[in-house]
Amino acid sequence: MPENFEKFALRARRRFFISTGFSILALLAAGFFKSIFLSIALFFFVLLLLASGFWEIIKATKSVYREREERLSILASLSDGIIQYSADKKIIFMNPKAEEYFGVKQKDIADLKIVPDLWDDKPIYRALVEIIYPELAPFTLARGGESFSSEKGIEIHTSRPELRLFVLSKEIKNTSGEVTGHVKIMRDISHDALISKIKSEFVSVAAHQLRTPLAALKWTLRLFIDGDMGPLEPKQLEFLNRGFETAERMIKLVNDLLDAARIEEGRFGYEFIEIDYLDFIAKLIKNYELVSKEKKISINLFPVKDLIPTIYADRDRLLLAFSNIIENALRYTNAAGKVDIDISLEKDYVKTVISDTGVGIPKEEQKRVFSKFFRASNAIRLETEGTGLGLFIVRNIIRRHGGEVTFVSKEGKGTAFTILLPIKRELIPMREGRAVEEYSEGI
Ligand code: ADP
């Protein structure tokens, strides 16, 4: 309730109370003193009090209306659509943007219950029905594999009219904690999606064009290094080796860019098969035996106590994700450090923790770790190589498998990445979606 309303209402109540008191006094005075003059004076006094009470009520009502108008005009001017509906799914409020999205007026549907059957019975309300029941929409993507009722927001594509909306939901509860309704805030992301599509298509084409000449360059250098073009001086060999490594780095960057662009467009392509998980991890560790020995870092697989079942996954994509995490652990850990791998079962998931004793990630930078092109300040200072695309790719691969990747890190102490992968097929999304940017921060 607006503050002014309370103030005016309190004053009015007080005046009505006092005037009642004086009315009784007037009656008593008239009876006791038998003075008509005193009675008339008291009567006018009571009248005055009553009038001022009513005046306060008018002021209170006006202040409520003014504040209501102000709120409505703020909601009306918002570029996001807002709907509020009751627990029995009746629309209580719709701002003009939401009316524009759905092509309906709030007053026309004030008494209509938005039930799933409307999707068939009244196709003109389809988009509205799909926002309230996201499972009916042709495309729905919940952030991080969360449920459709997640407050973090979900992307919904509606069928009629065709919209791409990012939707935040909030339950409304009364003082006893009962859910009395919902509010949904919707943002049209079709423009963002178009821009992001054009951008990733451009990156895709550019990276593709760069790959062939870079590969040719690399193999030409290899011919010289291998002595196929005649013997070389040690100094010449050193320069050619450096050129070769640079070409390899550029190929890695181009490949990462291509992968990231395909992930963003939702066309990375996955082929799921049954995988013996422990065998997969053992082979992965073997791939890094040499590098870890060179860097004097030990990789230790802890004895696995739980019985780990096979998992349903794309072997190559999963290998790419795990290689990225192990390579990071080796890259950001100094000699004599160690990398531990601990595998266990956690409810419906296989949990793998890969921890290192490396440089860690500064606390204030940790929230950006999974963003594209992010490289922590300490990693840049160390002059380590990297594209900042690895963990973006990792997270999307793991999420495509119905899993999640998280980490804890302490600067100067080390970092531990936890990867959860489902053991039940029904926990794996049916198809690949586009990678979703974190819109919720801006909404
Ligand atoms: P990069 O190619 O730079 O390694 P990633 O996306 O794989 O890109 O990682 C992003 C950044 O996260 C890295 O540049 C580094 O700052 C930080 N990082 C990732 N893994 C680790 C780790 N194990 N220890 C310390 N920092 C890490």
From TrEMBL:
Residues 205-425 form the Histidine kinase domain. Its EC number is 2.7.13.3. InterPro entries: HATPase_C_sf, HATPase_dom, His_kinase_dom, HisK_dim/P_dom, HisK_dim/P_sf, PAS, PAS-like_dom_sf, Sensor_HK_Regulatory. The chain crosses the membrane at residues 16-33. It is an enzyme of class 2 (transferase). One of its GO terms (molecular function) is phosphorelay sensor kinase activity. The keyword Phosphoprotein applies. Keywords: Kinase, Membrane, Phosphoprotein, Transferase, Transmembrane, Transmembrane helix, Two-component regulatory system. SMART domains: HATPase_c (SM00387), HisKA (SM00388), PAS (SM00091). It catalyses: ATP + protein L-histidine = ADP + protein N-phospho-L-histidine. Residues 67-135 form the PAS domain. PANTHER family: HISTIDINE KINASE (PTHR43711:SF31), TWO-COMPONENT HISTIDINE KINASE (PTHR43711). This is histidine kinase.
